[in-house]
Amino acid sequence: MAQRLNLVVSRHFSKLTSLSSTRKLSENVSSKPKTASGSEITADHLLYTPEHFALKESLKKIIDQDINPYVDQWEAEGIFPAHKVFKLLGNAGFLGVNKPVEYGGLGLDFSYSIAVSEELGNIRCGGIPMAIGVQTDMATPALARFGSTELKKEFLMPSIMGDKVACLGVSEVGAGSDVATIKTNAVREGDEYVVNGGKMWTTNGTQADWMCLLANTSDGPSHKNKSLICLPMNSPGVHIARKIDKMGMRSSDTAEVFFDDVRVPCKNLIGQEGMGFTYQMLQFQEERLWACGNILTMMDNIIQETIQYTRQRKIFKMPVLYHQSVHFRLAELETEIELLRSLLHRSTALYIKGNDVTKLASMAKLKAGRLSREVGDSCLQYWGGMGFTSDVLVSRFYRDARLLSIGGGADEVMLSIICKYMDTLPKK
Ligand SMILES: Cc1cc2nc3c(=O)[nH]c(=O)nc-3n(C[C@H](O)[C@H](O)[C@H](O)COP(=O)(O)OP(=O)(O)OC[C@H]3O[C@@H](n4cnc5c(N)ncnc54)[C@H](O)[C@@H]3O)c2cc1C
């Protein structure tokens, strides 16, 4: 393990001669905050050190060489080879940058996860970054934080190494926004749970080796009767009912899954029984910040490609871009993107220092969803008929980014959380 870590670190940070260990990197982040902002500024960045940028650069190479050339094919096929892509990323250390070193992670702090999420935004679709994000920052944070050593060896370590694909089972046919009302039960029988019910919208679901399952483990109040359980997807009684056909995120497989008397050892419980809802709410914070980082780069890329296209496309004797309504609108959107980036980086800086950033993370997720819809809609407009074809990134972005206002907590759910923190939500 130490050998692999050294390999990973030296591969990522070979240019940085002062580096002696990854632990030192993470200390750098919290002890030396920088003072500038803006994606293009690298020397005096508010959050990112040269080590963050080295990590991003190294990931960019994998994206350019091993992922982007195949994206169109995987989008057309409606699935991407998760085991193959995750093994590639796992070998290079990208599936566990903020996970413990003893389980194969790089032991860095969450700001490095955000740096990775931003870099993954350079993949030319939303589906593959989302699938990677499920593996790194949606299905595994609770396991890493609260799971037993045995459980982490069985599920976390191979997920970090890219040997196992993870999925997250929270949403159900009858319960999405209102997580408390899920119906899947895990009933104790001896030293096993017997799981019955089903999950809906499970990203990676047709390919996953295990699910981080949220299930009811008692009849108590809905916020205290739930547990997170590592459920092997090859267990007898797990049925993949279908792969859902979607308007966007097409290269990511989304499954509906049924559980019919699925027996799972009780030792697969993550942390304490009855704490699942709380763990999942914590896990959601990282998911929401991650999603925000990811969409920022995609929005940057869409704006840049729109500038390039509209600069060369002439209408009424001048480039589309030179019409004031066009370049002013792009400037407005760019301003909003920078505001969102500042909010994300501030939230992340507070989070790695141990603060509760639920309110800021919810604001960032809300704004990311809404802004990406505006960016997609405005930019697509400036591409004219070309924007309506499947040949250009902007139309894929328009379809893919629409999910952000729905998945991982809809805009209205974010608004409710923000209102709770503002103490403006009417009491029931
Ligand atoms: C492509 C895709 C991938 C997904 N991946 C996963 C996954 O891997 N794991 C997983 O567990 N789930 C996943 N989801 C599920 C996703 O998180 C849910 O779709 C989302 O939480 C919304 O739930 P719902 O679809 O049941 O909508 P509903 O709960 O039925 O809500 C419908 C609408 O009601 C509105 N609404 C919600 N709350 C309020 C409110 N308080 N006031 C007013 N209006 C409100 C919102 O506009 C919302 O869109 C995925 C979904 C999709 C589409």
From TrEMBL:
<dbReference type="InterPro" id="IPR009100">
    <property type="entry name" value="AcylCoA_DH/oxidase_NM_dom_sf"/>
</dbReference>
<dbReference type="Pfam" id="PF00441">
    <property type="entry name" value="Acyl-CoA_dh_1"/>
</dbReference>
<protein>
    <submittedName>
        <fullName>Zgc:85777</fullName>
    </submittedName>
</protein>
<feature type="domain" description="Acyl-CoA oxidase/dehydrogenase middle">
    <location>
        <begin position="167"/>
        <end position="262"/>
    </location>
</feature>
<dbReference type="InterPro" id="IPR046373">
    <property type="entry name" value="Acyl-CoA_Oxase/DH_mid-dom_sf"/>
</dbReference>
<dbReference type="InterPro" id="IPR037069">
    <property type="entry name" value="AcylCoA_DH/ox_N_sf"/>
</dbReference>
<keyword id="KW-0809">Transit peptide</keyword>
<dbReference type="GO" id="GO:0033539">
    <property type="term" value="P:fatty acid beta-oxidation using acyl-CoA dehydrogenase"/>
</dbReference>
<dbReference type="InterPro" id="IPR036250">
    <property type="entry name" value="AcylCo_DH-like_C"/>
</dbReference>
<keyword id="KW-0560">Oxidoreductase</keyword>
<dbReference type="GO" id="GO:0005737">
    <property type="term" value="C:cytoplasm"/>
</dbReference>
<keyword id="KW-0285">Flavoprotein</keyword>
<keyword id="KW-0274">FAD</keyword>
<feature type="domain" description="Acyl-CoA dehydrogenase/oxidase C-terminal">
    <location>
        <begin position="274"/>
        <end position="420"/>
    </location>
</feature>
<dbReference type="Pfam" id="PF02771">
    <property type="entry name" value="Acyl-CoA_dh_N"/>
</dbReference>
<dbReference type="GO" id="GO:0003995">
    <property type="term" value="F:acyl-CoA dehydrogenase activity"/>
</dbReference>
<keyword id="KW-0443">Lipid metabolism</keyword>
<dbReference type="InterPro" id="IPR006091">
    <property type="entry name" value="Acyl-CoA_Oxase/DH_mid-dom"/>
</dbReference>
<feature type="domain" description="Acyl-CoA dehydrogenase/oxidase N-terminal">
    <location>
        <begin position="49"/>
        <end position="162"/>
    </location>
</feature>
<dbReference type="InterPro" id="IPR050741">
    <property type="entry name" value="Acyl-CoA_dehydrogenase"/>
</dbReference>
<dbReference type="InterPro" id="IPR009075">
    <property type="entry name" value="AcylCo_DH/oxidase_C"/>
</dbReference>
<keyword id="KW-0276">Fatty acid metabolism</keyword>
<comment type="pathway">
    <text>Lipid metabolism; mitochondrial fatty acid beta-oxidation.</text>
</comment>
<dbReference type="InterPro" id="IPR013786">
    <property type="entry name" value="AcylCoA_DH/ox_N"/>
</dbReference>
<dbReference type="Pfam" id="PF02770">
    <property type="entry name" value="Acyl-CoA_dh_M"/>
</dbReference>
<comment type="similarity">
    <text>Belongs to the acyl-CoA dehydrogenase family.</text>
</comment>
<dbReference type="InterPro" id="IPR006089">
    <property type="entry name" value="Acyl-CoA_DH_CS"/>
</dbReference>
<dbReference type="GO" id="GO:0050660">
    <property type="term" value="F:flavin adenine dinucleotide binding"/>
</dbReference>
